Structures are given as C-alpha cells and as structure tokens.
Amino acid sequence: MVRPPTSRSIVPGTGRLGLVEPTAAEDLRTLGWTGVDDIPLLWALSRAPDADLALRALMRIREALGDGWQRIDTALRTDLGLRGRLFGLLGSSTALGDHLVAHPTRVDLLAGGADLPSRDALDEVFLAAVDAHPEPGRDDDAVVYRAGVTGGDAVAALRDAYRDQLALLAAIDLAPTVEDEPVLPYNAVAEHLSDMADAALTAALAVAIATVCGDKPCGTRLAVIAMGKCGARELNYVSDVDVVFVAEPADATASRIAGELMRVGSSAFFDVDAALRPEGKSGELVRTLDSHIAYYRRWAKTWEFQALLKARPMTGDMALGRDYVDALGPMVWTASEREDFVPEVQAMRRRVEEMVPPELRERELKLGRGSLRDVEFAVQLLQLVHGRADESLRVRSTVDALTALAAGGYVGRDDAANLTASYEFLRLLEHRLQLQRLKRTHTLPPDDDEALRWLARAAHMRPDGTHDSLGVLREEIRRNAHRVRRLHVRLFYRPLLDSVARMDRDAIVPSPEAAVRQLAALGYAAPENALGHLTALTAGASRKGRIQALLLPSLLETLADTPDPDAGLLAYRRLAEAMHDHEWFLRLLRDGPAVAERLMRILGSSAYLATLLLKAPDVIRLYVDSPTGPRLLEQRPADVAKGIATAAARYEDPARAIGAARALRRAELARVASADILGMLDVPAVCHALSSVWVAVLEASLGAVVRASERERGEPAPASLTVIGMGRLGGFELGYGSDADVMFVCEPRDGVDDTTAVKWASTIADRVRTLLGTPSTDPPLEVDTGLRPEGRNGPVVRTLASYRAYYEQWAQSWEVQALLRATSVAGDADLGLRFLHMIDRIRYPEGGVSENAVREIRRIKARVDSERLPRGADPATHTKLGRGGLADVEWTVQLLQLRHAHAVPALHNTSTLETLDVLEQTELLDAENVELLRESWTLATKARNALVLVRGKPTDQLPSSGRVLAGVACIAGWGAVSDVGEFLDHYMRVTRRARGVVEDVFGD
C-alpha cells in the first residue's frame, strides 16, 4: 500500500504541499518548480491523491524523456486538462505510472481534449496493433479478422495498446481530484471498460485465427458471448472477463481458436474465464448452439439461468451470438417457476456470505455485508421473478435494472435511487483500489488513517466543513453499507406492503399477481394465503395497522429465511390478533429489532412454540437481552420449581392447583424451547430443564391431591407416598415429547395396615394421573407406570416391603436394568431415599450380574431390534429405536453398568451422558468409542427434540426430505434450510459409527 501524505513534513517548505519524503524539496528544484510562477503546478500537485508518488513518477518520466521533458513541462503549465489527468493518474496508480515511465511519449495521449474513443475507434486501435484485416466474403455480422502479428510480439503489442487506453480512461476518471474537471459518471467508466474488453478480444480472436489457421480458411463460425460484468457492460478496471463460446461446427479447430483467444487475452489484458459454460470447467470449451440449448433445457441449475441474465454477444460471429441469446433468453424468464428455485436461491445467498472470512466482512466491498453482491443478487432475483410477465425488466446492467424495477412498481423509487447511489459509490471505491497496482481487489484497507486518506482523495472526497476527507470517507462507507444492508427489506418487502397497505401514496403499486410471484420466490408455498395475511395484519387505518405495516418488511425478511415461512406468517397473524389489546407487544417488536427477529425465527421453525406462545405470550418479553446476557437464560430450574409449588399451594381444589402448575409449566416450556431454537442452550441443559419442570409439576400435583384427601378425611394421610422417576425422567434427560415413567411407593403410618395404605395410595396415584392427563392444548402430561414390577399387569402402588420382596425373589433382567435409572423425584423424600438404598442391592449386585442375565439382556436387545421398530420406519433415521439411536446407546451404557457398577461406585449414576464420562475415565470403554456414543446420543436427542418442536407433536422418525426435515436441520444447528441433505448424511454417518460400538459391546 502506498502511504498517502500527512499534514506534517520533515522537509521545510513542502509540508503544506502534502509532500513528506526527504527528497521532495530537491526533486522540486530539479524540475525547476520553485518560483512564484510555479504555484499553479505545485497547488495541482498537492491535490494529487498521493503527492509524493506523483512527484517520484514525474521525476522518472523527466529522466526517461531527457531533453523532451521541456515540452511536457510547458504543456503542464498551459494545459489544465493534461495537468489534472497526469497528476491524478500518477498520484493514484503505481502500475500505470510505470507504464508511462516505460513509454513516456504516451503522456501526449492525455493532452488537449483527450476524449474517450468510440467502440469503433477502439477496434481500430487494437486491430492495428496486430496488423489485423477483415477476411473478404463476410457480411458485417460475421466479419472475421486475421492478424498479421502473432506469438509474443502480438501479446506485447496488445498489452501496450490496452495499457495506453486504460491510462487514458483512468486519467480522465481521476482528473477531478486535481483540477475542476467534470466527474466521469460510473456508468461511462464501466461501459468504456467493457467496450475496451470487446475490442481487445476482437484483436485477440484475430491473433488466435492467424495462429491456428495460418493463411487457410478456418471453416468454422465462432461467437464469443460476454457474461457477468462484461456482459452487462459494467466491467471493473481489473476483473475477469467471463465468456462462453458458441461454434458451428464445434470441432477441434473451433476449440483451438477459443483456447488460443483465452491464452492471448489472459496474457495481454485480463483473465479470460470460461467457467460459466455448461458443466463449468469440466465441460467442453466450445459447443454448438443446439448443444447449448439441450443443456439448458435439461440440466442447467438456477444459478446458470441467473448468469444468462448478463449474456451479450461481444465479438466473433455476431449473428451466431445473437441466435444464442435469442434461443436461451426465454428460458431465463421461466427459471423462477422451477421446483428448486427457492432452495437454490437461498443456497446461493448463503454461499456468497460464507465466502468472506468473518474478519473481512466489514471491509469487503464485493462480498461482505452491505456489499455490491448484495445489491446485484437482490436485483437479479427480482428480475427473474417478474421478468417473465414484464419485458421491461429484461435488461443486463444492475443500474438499468433498478431503474426498470422502480418504473414497474417492484421497488420504491426512492429506494432504487438510493441503492443506485450506494452501488455506484461502492464501485467507485473498488475502482480506486484496483487502479493503485492494477490488481484485482475488493477489500478496503485496514483501519489505517494514511491508507484511507489516500483512498478518500482518489475517490474525489473533499472536506465538508464537519469532517476532513478521511472523515467524509468513513461516514460515507458507514452510511452506504448500512443502506445496502437493508436492501432485502426495502427491495423485496416494501412493495408488497404498498400493495396491501399503501405505505406510500405516491408509489407505483405492484399488481396482486406480481406480489404473489414475489412471495412465491421468497419461499412461501402458498403465496396467495400469505398475501391475505398481510392484508389482514395491515387492515384499516388504526395505529396498530400502521405499526404493522412498518414492522412487516423486516419481519417478512426474517421469515423468508426460516424453514416454513407460511406457517410462521400464519402464527404471527394469530399471535398479533390474540395480542390486539396488549400495547406492549407491538411496542416491543418496534423498539427491539432483535426481539422481532428472534420471534420470527421461532414462529417460522416451530409449530410447538407457535401454539405455546399464544397461551404464554409474556415469554416474548424475555427475548430481549439484559446487560448480563440473554434474559431467556436468567431463569433457573430451581426457581421455576419453587414458583410452581407456590402457585399450586394457593388453591385447595387439586384441579385448580394443577391448572396453576400447568400455566407455569407452559411458560417454562416456551422459555426453554425458545432458548433451544435460538441456540442458547445445549442438549444436556435442555433435557435437565425439561426434566426439572416435570418433577416440579409432579411434586405440586401430588402435594395438592394429598392435601385435598386429608381435608376430605379430616385426618392425616394413612401412609407416606413417594414417586420414583424411571427412564429418561430418572436420568433427568427428558425431551419435549417424553412421558414421565414413574413408580409409586407407599409406606403405612404407625397403626395402619398395608391394605388400607395401598388402597389410599392407589387412589391418590390414580387421581394424580387423571388430573395430569386431562385433555388440553398444552403439551401432554402423561404419567406412565409401565416399568413397575410385573409391568402393566402389576399393582400401580406397592409398599416398600412389597417392592423389596418382589425384587429379591422375582426380578427379571429387564426390571433390574430399568432400575438403573430409578431416582426419587417427588413425595416423601425419606421414603424415596430408603427405596433407592433398597434397590441398590438389586441393580448393583456384589460381583456384578450373572452371565445368564447378560445373555438374557442381549436376547431382549436383539428382539427389540427386530420387533419394536414401527412398521414402515427407516432403521437408519429412527431417532429412538434406529441403528445407533437413543436405545442403542442407552442399552450399551446400561449393560456396562450392570457388569461393572459393583466395582466402580461412580457408575451408580442415572444419567447416560455422565455415565459415559465415567466409562471413559475408568477406561472401561476407550475414549474414541465413548465419543462416538456420546455424539450419537446427543445428535439423536437433538433431532428427536427438534422433530417435536417442528411438528408440534411427538415423533421419532426423521423424514427423508421436505420442510419438516429442513426445520429439524435448522434447529439442530445446520442453519440454512437447504442443507437438509448434508444434515441427514451427517446423522446417518454418526449413528452408523455408534452402531459399530454397540455391536462390539453386545458381541463380547
């Protein structure tokens, strides 16, 4: 990076000229620029973007010219245009300064009027450089030139000619930084660069024909199609030129000519890139027109049609080139109707964002946030969506497309004007950065005042009374990047709202058909319904309707990036209608953009939460962040349990007490699920929170029913009663769709017989189960006692002594295995502890379980694998019973516990994950295998929880495709909805590897 000047000089008398190098004063004396008559020269030099750089180049040109310098010196004193062009160029570009030093007489190109040549004149310049002449017998559209100069001489001649024309353009472009010359508009620069590319490749084609065919006729028609920025005539100073070749016939000769054109062009001018051809770099370099048509009809992807938006015949057989554009053009305008249009567009957007390293995103002009690509991508998408019905949108350039979109009412007129200004500003900065060394770059300098001050001066920035040129540049970068970052809101959603709410009475309103097309392209499967929701939300002239009209553009933008924007918009409408009388709701969304974004992400991802939030809307208040972190994480499970117990204790009626507990559970589930979807909680934290709230509800419900019974009896309960958590409840590893597996244990009070105690306890247990299982729109509260002795055939409640007798005499292998996860969760804590001490002798027997028991467990596991998987389920993707799923991992851990827990007290643990940690620490299972099991269990649990969140009801089977799988992938951390295939592959890969560990353990 060339260091621009600072205000301080180490050379007396030159600091005010912006010269800081020690040799500056001597150089000025050598030039003879030290008198009063030289002040205009010195003043102009001081205004160069880098005065030192310009002065050094002038000294080198003087040395190269020798006696001829006097003529240039005289011209600089009288020709203001030359002065501005030369000083601006030399102070901005080391590469073009070197070119003028090597060819000092070319300074004359910048003198006088120095007008830009026309396209025809450019053709003459480049063709003359290689002594090219048209072949006879061709019409104007099929003219072929053959060069008289080939090889290295041709490349050198073309390179010099191109640098001459580039220097002329850049000098005229930069002159306003020095003298008050007219500013060359962005579009004039970009179009002239594209004309130069066309003319340059016309000459390169002439060299290629002469090289390949010699003096003989080539016998082939070859058209060169410009793509990308060159096709749109918006080329950069330094850029690849994307091309596609069409030939009749597409034979070896045509391929050799195309290859030679690319070699000559890339050596002399710029990289000539044919990667946008069918099949990319692996495809044939040259195809016939029919071959191109066949490919695009059958194989092309959405991005390839998007690339065709810019296709333009640039040189060669222009008639064939026009035939190419005419044949493929209509296909572009039906691309938005393709089934995969939306996911491919979303994938393209994501790839653009991911191409830039995080540390460069604020400095990248092309691909970063608020960048050129943001504008270009959005404009092209709108063209694809509406261009089929509106031919006025079938233009190539980004600026022209914005103008057409505004004229058609698809983009607000002010938005189009502002975005055009931002786009041209960013392109100006890109041009200046590239000119410096003629290198392809799109990255702003790091936070370096000197480097940025140079850029400000080169980009015509002047002090504005508040800021110096550096301050003006920084403010403009910030303002324009911020404006472009809002482009998706403004370009995609404001016109939609104008069509239903008329936010801008002077706006040209898109038709309902156009609004439906746009919603479909943004991912809405039922765009007519979506438009109806927008109409309903903004209906009337009420203040709430106006606020909704202001909010909805950004809300819709977020929803469009969720797995199910249709469901999300419907859920938002229902929520907004339910909250109609709550002023805080819209105020919170209006004043808290982060809250609005989080709410839309949740509503577009989860049917589970969409229902919960209707009944627990206050949870939305927790979507804000406090100074210490997310408020969603401020609630502790212990505080939730205390709140549930306190709320239930206020009511004597058990049904009302349980209703109060349900309400707090509902809010806690909404909080946990919200934090889960937003990526704030990991799997163990989610499972622990869900288990804690279940335990709290059980405790509160049991307490309420026991208190009611004591009031009815008029005396204390005849027995103590405890609830033992089993399965995932016992391991505190519940998911959103889990039942509560429990056993009820009672013990008679003094003087009460067992029969009376068990009868009373059974009544209590039945009432608790009934009240909790009352039908509700809330997530169910099913209490399952199927793991009790004798299973569903045994009594629901037993005394502690009865349990002891049963387990000591009759316990089967599966019952012993089930006890591994037993823990006391509610009721009499002392009785629960005594029960656990009693079963420790059963589940952790001295010497470990017998080999007969191990064989029985293996037999049962094999039977589970073969019989329990639901009909039609895919064993590769069933999260509970599939290969490497939850059951596989848990059975493996439990088998190792049964075999080793008697000798390793740390294995006396009901948690699967914590037990895996112990198995690793004690080396009972090697670390690699433990990690495979841990990863599989965590992933399967995450996927199973996500399935409930997406569908709103329990399920264990991952689908093979569709919105449900997209939602699961998104919640599971895969981000974009189009990564479902990658997520499914990852899931099957992880569980397959875990299954190998399971088979090794059960095969011992």
Automatic annotation (TrEMBL):
EC number of the protein: 2.7.7.89, 2.7.7.42
GO cellular component: cytosol
Region (Adenylyl removase): 1-496
Assigned keywords, A-Z: ATP-binding, Ligase, Magnesium, Multifunctional enzyme, Nucleotide-binding, Nucleotidyltransferase, Transferase
Cofactor(s) listed in the protein's UniProt record: Mg(2+)
Catalytic activity entry: [glutamine synthetase]-O(4)-(5'-adenylyl)-L-tyrosine + phosphate = [glutamine synthetase]-L-tyrosine + ADP; [glutamine synthetase]-L-tyrosine + ATP = [glutamine synthetase]-O(4)-(5'-adenylyl)-L-tyrosine + diphosphate
PANTHER family reported for this sequence: BIFUNCTIONAL GLUTAMINE SYNTHETASE ADENYLYLTRANSFERASE_ADENYLYL-REMOVING ENZYME (PTHR30621:SF0), GLUTAMINE SYNTHETASE ADENYLYLTRANSFERASE (PTHR30621)
Protein name, UniProt field: Bifunctional glutamine synthetase adenylyltransferase/adenylyl-removing enzyme
Domain PII-uridylyltransferase/Glutamine-synthetase adenylyltransferase: residue ranges: 347-492, 876-1002
Region listing for Adenylyl transferase, in residue ranges: 504-1004
Organism of this sequence: Rhodococcus rhodnii LMG 5362
Family note: Belongs to the GlnE family.
Domain named Glutamate-ammonia ligase adenylyltransferase repeated: residues: 153-321, 597-837
